[in-house]
Amino acid sequence: MAAFLEPQLLFSNPIFASKASNTTDPHHIHNLKLKLPNFPSKNSALVFNLNSSASFATCNNTVTTPCCVASNPSPSLPPDDPNPNPNPVAVTAPERTREGRDRRKIVKVAWEKLVRWSRSWRSKTKTDVLERTNKVVVLGGGSFGTAMAAHVANRKSQLEVYMLVRDPVVCQSINQEHCNCRYFPQHKLPENVIATTDAKTALLGADYCLHAVPVQFSSTFLEGIVDYVDPGLPFISLSKGLELNTLRMMSQIIPQALRNSRQPFIALSGPSFALELMNKLPTAMVVASKEKKLANAVQQLLASNHLRISTSSDVTGVEIAGALKNVLAIAAGIVEGMDLGNNSMAALVAQGCSEIRWLATKMGAKPMTITGLSGTGDIMLTCFVNLSRNRTVGVRLGSGEKLDDILSSMNQVAEGVSTAGAVIALAQKYNVKMPVLTAVARIIDNELTPKKAVLELMSLPQVEEV
C-alpha cells in the first residue's frame, strides 16, 4: 500500500513511470483497482480511471506491482481517522456545484432584500431639518471641530457655518486661505465656513451649536459666552471626558455653565478620527439625547453618504464610554511602548472594556451601549491606531519618557490624562474596582512606574471572569 502513496502517484494527477522503468509510455496505464485496508467489504476497491490503453493486472485480493513501484512495499499505513466512517458517502462534483449555487442564491436574495429595505427607508427619510437650517456654529478651532465644520458646510452650500476660535492667525487662515493653518494646512475648507473670534457674531441666529472645546476648559469658556446663547439653542457636544474636580460630564457641564437646566443637549460620539472625516472616508457615529425628536433632527443634519449617524437615548452610556476609552487608550499605549506583546494587549483591552461596563452600568447606562459605536467601536480605534493622541501618550510613557515632556511637545489635548484621576474618584463613588484604569491614574500621577504597574496587575488574585 505504501508504494502507491509515493509522490509520483498523487490521486489527482496522472501517474508517470520512473526513469528506471522501460514503461515510459503513459498509455501503458489505464485502470487501477487498489484494495484499501480496513474497508468493511472484502471486495471494496478504489478505482483509478487514467484514460490510457494499458492496465495493471488485478484481482480481488492482489495488486500487480508496476515496474515504477518498489517490489517490497512497507506495511499499510493506518488511516488518519481512528474511527473511520464505515459507510463513506461520496459527494459528486454536480452535487457540490448545486450546493454552491443554492448558497449563492440564498446570499443574493438576502442582499437584494437588504437593498430594497434600504431604498424604502431612504425614500421615507426626512430632509426638512437640513432644509430649515441656515446657520450652525462650531465652538473651538481644534482638529475635530474643524472637521465637523467642514462636514456640515458640505451638506448644503447655502448653509453658514461659523467657527468661534481664539487664535487670530487661525481665524485669518480660515477666512482668507480657506484652511486651518494649525491642524489642516493641506485641506481646503468649504467657502461657507467662516471663522470669527467674536462670540456674539458666531452665535447670533444659530440653529445648532457644535461644542468642540476640551472638557477641562468648557465650563469657564461657556460662562464667558452665556449672554449670547439662546436658551433654545441645541448643543451638540463633541468633547469627551470628565471634569477633573467635579466629575461632571458634558451633559452636566453645559446646562450648569449656561445657567439653563433645559438647554437642549446632544452627545456625539463614536470611532472618528478628524483626519479621516476630513478625507470623507466612511465613518459611523452615534448621537444621544433624552429627547428622541432632537436626536432624530441632529441625525438628519449630520448624516451623509460617508457619515452614518445612529441615535440613542442613553446619554450616560455614550458619555462615560467616550470619556473612559481615552484612559484605556493610554494603558494600551503603555503596553505598546513596553513591547509586551499581542497577548498582553488583548488581555488589557478586554479587561478595560469590562471595567468601563461595570462603572457605566452602575451609573445607569445600558450594557448594549458599551458594546456599540461609542463603546467598543471607539475603544478599538483609540487603543489600536497610531493616530490616537491618548495612545501616543501611553506609548511614550511606556518607552520611559516623562509625562511633562510628553505634554509640552504636543499641540493637542489628550483628554485621558486629566480624565484618569476623575475616573478613579468616580469608581470609588460607585464602589467599582477598576485595576487597569486605576494603574493608569497612578502612572500619570508619577506614583507608579509602568513596569511596577504591570507586575502588580499580573499579581492580582486569580478570579472568576465577570
Automatic annotation (TrEMBL):
This is Glycerol-3-phosphate dehydrogenase [NAD(+)].
